[in-house]
Design brief:
With 429 residues, the chain is mainly α. It contains 18 helices and two strands. The chain has a two-stranded antiparallel sheet with strand order 1-2. A hairpin with a 2-residue loop joins strand 1 and strand 2. Helix 5 packs antiparallel against helix 6, helix 7 packs antiparallel against helix 8 and helix 9 packs across helix 10.
């Protein structure tokens, strides 16, 4: 039987560097992995690709398929590369080192460099450079690689299980200490819980499970907050070209772009970053000297809905159609405020209309994307924790939604740290 061929490299759930598809999924909930992108390529009729079933594409990226099916997928990829003139792009993003099993860093480097190249194809005048962001990802990927290699080597040692676990815990502590902003108490308790959880025969106590869950959450918070803070530090270098009004400049310089949009949880009610964002824009993007605009007025900046999809009944004149379109716009804005991911073209059109007299739409676009990701992420975490607490009620004594929101809302600390390093020229974290 022929050996199966895997098109993609498997993700690892260890969140020192979370799977890149997690972030992509928050930005586009219909994109769940490489197989989704491959299928979307096939749907582009102009490319004239060989059809491969969606399930086959998924299997190819996860478990592997026959060499015959793999060849068909590879031919499609080569055809796309030729037709889209992507040969130079691929040369820039091709991994320079072998991919280490159980790591996500290589995918992050490829994804970020590929995304930057794609953005710059539409920037004919000023090319965007993100040196701090890419440097952070390179450092983190290198540390992840070393940590996982050390753990692989420890498992192969001719030593007692306890000696192996001790070496692995030391490597974990070192990586956390040098690459994250977790404090020493968190590093000690979380690393101990991870090692205890992997020890054969170890009873799974509620405090241990809680510390493992806290570790997984805090590592992801640390990674994404450092990533965002470095991105915002890169934005500082080009802030003059962003044409920001004073309040948005202050938001970038003193709050890392997103510091005023933290989620709030009071009496069980969550105030999301997307809600905070549009409240913020009501003030910041209103005409100078005027009161904050209403949401009804803000909704007028959304692209006009297609008349064929506007809901009107019976005989309708132009005013009826306009009223129905305005109602559709207002509903769509409400959905965005609640966390629905806006379609890119609609969001760009909305922001270009909203900011035309005040600033460029590029920075508000970033804010909108980040706020949407944050909202989906924190809602997802709270839902998961509540489900786990139902199954294990004692867990609620160790963790709570309030704890999640408080820990998540430490982004201003990350911004202060990264901004200080950016201005001093010192390497991170």
């Amino acid at each position: 039987m022929a050996e199966k061929v895997i098109i993609d490299t498997p993700d690892t759930l260890f969140p020192f560097m979370p799977p890149v598809w997690e972030l992509v999924g928050w930005l586009d909930d219909k994109c769940t992995g490489m197989h989704t992108l491959l299928h979307r390529m096939q749907e582009d009729e102009s490319l004239k690709l060989e059809p491969v079933h969606r399930q086959t594409l998924k299997t190819a990226c996860q478990d592997g398929v026959s060499p015959r099916s793999a060849k068909k997928i590879e031919r499609n990829l080569h055809k796309v590369t030729e037709q889209k003139n992507m040969a130079e792009l691929l040369s820039h993003i091709t991994p320079k080192e072998p991919i280490v099993r159980d790591t996500n860093g290589t995918k992050w480097l490829v994804f970020s460099q590929g995304l930057l190249e794609e953005i710059n194809q539409h920037q004919p005048i000023q090319k965007l450079e993100l040196p701090l962001t890419l440097s952070f990802l390179e450092r983190r990927a290198k540390a992840e690689r070393q940590l996982i290699l050390t753990c692989h080597q420890a498992r192969k040692m001719e030593a007692s299980p306890e000696e192996k676990l001790t070496r692995m815990r030391k490597a974990i502590c070192e990586a956390f200490r040098h690459q994250t902003l977790l404090n020493s108490q968190e590093i000690q308790s979380y690393s101990a819980a991870m090692i205890d959880a992997s020890r054969p025969g170890q009873p799974r106590t509620t405090p241990m499970v809680a510390n493992v869950l806290k570790c997984l959450f805090c590592l992801r918070v640390d990674f994404y907050h450092q990533l965002l803070a470095n991105l915002m530090a890169d934005m500082l270098e080009i802030k003059e070209s962003l044409r920001l009004p004073d309040k948005l400049t202050d938001t970038l310089v003193n709050h890392g772009g997103m510091g005023k949009l933290m989620p709030l949880l009071a009496k069980g009610k969550l105030t999301t970053p997307t809600y905070q964002l549009y409240e913020f824009w009501r003030d910041v993007l209103s005409p100078l000297g005027e009161r904050p605009m209403s949401y009804r007025l803000m909704a007028q900046h959304l692209p006009r809905p297609n008349e064929g999809r506007t809901r009107v009944r019976g005989l309708a004149d132009q005013q009826d159609i306009k009223n129905a379109a305005d109602a559709t716009r207002l509903t769509r804005l409400k959905e965005w405020r609640a966390g629905t991911v806006p379609e890119a073209e609609q969001l760009i059109g909305f922001l270009e209309s909203l900011t035309v007299e005040n600033c460029d739409a590029f920075f508000p676009f970033i804010m909108a994307r980040v706020a949407t990701v944050w909202t989906k992420w924190i809602e997802q975490e709270i839902t998961l924790l509540n489900q786990l607490a139902k199954e294990t009620p004692a867990l609620s004594e160790e963790m709570s939604p309030e704890w999640l929101v408080e820990r998540f809302s430490r982004y201003p600390e990350y911004w202060a740290h990264v901004k200080a390093q950016a201005t001093s020229g010192e390497p991170g974290p």
